[in-house]
Design brief:
Low-confidence stretches: none
Largest sheet: 2 strands, antiparallel
Shape: extended
Order of helices and strands: HEEEE
Strand order of the largest sheet: 1-2
Structural class: mainly beta
Helix content: under 10%
Strand content: 25-35%
Radius of gyration: 15 Å
Number of strands: 4
Number of helices: 1
């Protein structure tokens, strides 16, 4: 289990392995929910297609989950 410290501004750094597992990048939005004493974090699904870097560094347009490619 990993731990982190909350800054004086109330900010928290998400450990790298969790950011990679959720494919989180700068500017992505996340959802929080409280389940008893646990805080749950979930990646918000984008409403639009987004541009990402492909295998060879070329830009690729990726549709949101559940949409046709």
């Amino acid at each position: 289990m990993n731990s982190a410290t909350i800054s004086t501004k109330g900010q928290l750094v998400i450990p790298n392995r969790f950011r990679k597992a959720l494919h989180l990048q700068a500017g992505d939005r996340v959802l929080f929910s409280l389940e008893g004493e646990k805080l749950s974090l979930q990646r918000e699904q984008p409403k639009r297609a987004r541009l990402v870097r492909g295998k060879f560094g070329r830009p690729v347009l990726v549709a949101r989950q559940g949409r046709p490619p």
